Each structure stands twice: as C-alpha cells, then as structure tokens.
Amino acid sequence: MENKQVINKIADLETKKSVHISMTKLTHSQFRKRLFDYDLSMQEVLELFASLAGENDSRAIDILKEAKQLKRRRAIKKLTSSEVENLYDAISEIDPFEK
Fold this sequence. Notes:
Blueprint (H helix, E strand, L loop, with lengths): L1 H14 L9 H13 L4 H13 L3 H21 L2 H12 L7
C-alpha cells in the first residue's frame, strides 16, 4: 500500500500545475474565514471550482458569467468622458444605410 501512495504522490507532483492568485486583503480574509467554517482549504475549493467549470457545471458557469459582467462594468467605468465622446462621435458617423 505504501508503494502505491508514493507512486501517486510522484504522479501528482509531476502532473499538477501551480497557480498564483492576487486578491485584496479583505477578500482573502473573508474567504479564509468562510472556508475555516467548513474546514476547507483554498486549494480544495479552487480545485473543485476549476473542475466544475471545466465540466460545464451550470453553477460554475453562472459564476463565470457574473465575473464577465463585473469585468465589463469595470472597463466601462474606466472610460474617460473624452473617450465616451469619441465613441459617440464615431457611432454618429456610421450610416447604417450606406454600403
């Protein structure tokens, strides 16, 4: 049984990927507290989420869609007023009936 465990550990070591995640201190502490309530590690939860997303699980896909919407909103908020004016000017110059 011990040989099988050693082989599994070696296989895991050779096939696993490492990911660095940057998040705010507040997010990290809240996440960590919540995981502590369930006796879970970040590794366990993030690996499960990645697996579910890869398997097209509807709950994980909903979270990905929400993340995409938040990213889009942040990008829109970053637009300066002059950039917005330039966009409106460019759109107004487009004639939908012109070929």
